Amino acid sequence: MKKEFVVIGLGRFGGSIVNELIELDADVMAIDISPEKVDAYAQIATQAVAADTTDESVLRSLGIRNFEHVVVAIGENIQASILTTLMLKEIGVKKITVKAQNDYHEKVLRKIGADQVVHPERDMGIRIANNMVSNNILDYLELSDEHSIAEIKANDKLVGFTLIDLDIRAKYGVNIVAIKRGKQILVSPQAIEKIQLEDILIVIGSDADIHRFEKKAL
Ligand code: ATP
Ligand code: ATP
Ligand code: CA
Fold it and tell me: Name one GO biological process term (predicted).
C-alpha cells in the first residue's frame, strides 16, 4: 500500500514536498487556490486540485479526512493558513504539518492543534550560518532544542589517534556514532579505531558539548 498525502499550497516549499514525495513513491493530492499552480503539478502529483482550502465543505468533498498526513504550505496569507489548519483539525485529520511565516503564526498554529510547525527559511538560515562560522562542522541535524548530530571533518590534531587515545566521550561528552571514510561508513566504530586523514566523524551530543569538542579537540 502506498502512503497517501495531501499538500496544500504549491509555492516553492509545497512544490518541493510534492516532487520529493512522488520521487519517494507516495501518492500525493496537490491543492492550490491558483489554477496555474495546479496546472503545473497536474502531470506530477497523483491528483492536482484547484480549491480554496479555507472552505470546509471543499475539504469534506475531497475526502481529505482519509489521508494520513496533510501539509499546509500556504505562506504569505497567514489567515488562509490558520483557517485551513483549523478546518483540517475540525474534520479530524490525524497529522497536520504547517509552514509558519513567523513566531506569532507558529504560536497560533500550535494553539489550534498543528502537530508539526516548520520554519524552512529560518532553519535553513541557522544551518547555513553555523556552517559559515565553523570550518569543521559540515552539517548538522537538530534532534531537539539542545541536542544535535553533527558531521565534523577530522583534522591533523586527531589523525593517527584512536578514540581511546583521544578519550572523546569522557572528555567532551559526545559520542562518535559513525565515521565516514570515502565511500565507506563505519557504524559504531570501535574504541581502538584510528582516525584517518579526510575522515568525517558523525557525532551526537548536546550542542554545547559538540561545540566544545569542535573548539578544543580540533
Ligand atoms: P514559497 O514556498 O514559494 O516561499 P510562500 O511561503 O511565499 O511560498 P505563498 O506563495 O504565499 O507562500 O503561498 C503558497 C501557495 O499557497 C500559493 O501558490 C497560493 O496560491 C496558495 N494558497 C494561498 N491561499 C490559499 C488557499 N486559501 N487555498 C489553497 N491554496 C492557497
Ligand atoms: P566509558 O567509560 O566512556 O563507558 P568504555 O568503558 O566503554 O568507556 P572504551 O570503549 O574502551 O571504554 O573507550 C574508552 C574511551 O574512549 C571512552 O571513555 C571514550 O572517551 C572514548 N571512546 C570510545 N568510543 C567512543 C566513541 N564512539 N565516541 C566517543 N568516544 C569514544
Ligand atoms: Ca516565501
Answer: potassium ion transport
